[in-house]
Amino acid sequence: MTRKFIAPSYSADYLQIERPSPLTDNAIEQCIQDVLFGKMDHDISDQVYTDFKKEMTSWLLAGKLNNLTGFDTFDRVDIINGCTQFIDTMYMRGKVQVIQGDYKYHYRLGNWHRSIGKLEPGVPLIIAMPFPSTGAIHTQMKEILDEARDKGIDIHVDGAWLTCGRGIDFDVSHSAIKSVSISLSKGLGLGWNRIGLRWTRERRVDAITIMNDFNMNLRATAKIGLHFIRNFSPDYLWNKHGENYYKICNDFKLTPTNAIQLALRDGHPVGVSPLLRYLDEQ
């Protein structure tokens, strides 16, 4: 297994400008090695799916650094192959809209941003939380939700970064929010094993519901996800590396965000994972 990039020296030259990478550390990399050598539960029955849904939900809500509420208002939970599958499934349904500064994947698909106050009525909106260009809840989230409610716009929350966040205080029970997805990729270094959950208000037939209804998801990814949440707390990254994160922000005059791998320099996002790894190695 190739280790994530570690800065060779403590220098601003190693801040990541184009594509901030998720944070992993030696403990996470050791857990990956354990998985590769089969040091985990060997159950490959359908029970793996049930256990993953139940345990990831409990794991997420047990975190003390975020305050996420309202999940009990959703009627259904499905396993997803990371938040990218959640996004792709939305595009398979038809037209969607996004707001400037969101995940660049949308722009690579040719979907350009809409302006707040000028959202298109009736067209579903995908919005990331924390927002990728700020590392925090979008500063106009209330206005977005109110506009969506007034215009009949279904909101779908992409929580890919929630598992590497802190200080996120949000209630997902707003009537405009129809689904929320959260994956383990960013919080537990599992980009190589994309796994997460999608919560929805009501059952709607799509690729995700079909895969779940017929137990078509890969058992291996669910097993690995279970192994990681059983070995790391939802607050692990911030508890372990939070002090070094704020040191980096102070030393290089960066503005802290709510996402462990991201800070702002002159209002622009920069990745700090290589420097966090450097300090962790000292």
Explain how this protein is built.
The chain is an alpha/beta fold. The protein has 2 domains: 12-35 and 235-281, no CATH class; 47-231, Aspartate Aminotransferase, domain 2, CATH 3.40.640.10. It is 35% helix and 15% strand. The chain contains 9 helices and 10 strands. The chain has helices spanning 26-36, 47-61, 82-93, 104-108, 141-151, 207-213, 219-231, 236-251, 273-281; strands at 67-69, 76-80, 125-128, 155-158, 169-171, 177-183, 196-200, 255-256, 262-265, 268-271. A 5-stranded mixed β-sheet has the order 2-7-6-4-3, with helices on both faces. The protein has a 3-stranded antiparallel β-sheet with strand order 8-9-10, with helices on one face. Strand 3 (125-128), helix 5 and strand 4 (155-158) form a beta-alpha-beta unit. It is globular. The two termini are 22 Å apart. The model has no long low-confidence stretch (mean pLDDT 95).
List the helices and strands and how they pair.
Blueprint lengths: L25 H11 L10 H15 L5 E3 L6 E5 L1 H12 L10 H5 L16 E4 L12 H11 L3 E4 L10 E3 L5 E7 L12 E5 L6 H7 L5 H13 L4 H16 L3 E2 L5 E4 L2 E4 L1 H9 L1
Parallel strand pairs: 1-5, 3-4, 4-6
Antiparallel strand pairs: 2-7, 6-7, 8-9, 9-10
Helix pairs in contact: 2-7, 8-9
Descriptive key words:
single chain; 282 residues; alpha/beta; Aspartate Aminotransferase, domain 2; 2 domains; five-stranded mixed β-sheet; 9 helices; 10 strands
Brief overview, please?
This protein is of the alpha/beta class. It has 9 helices and 10 strands.
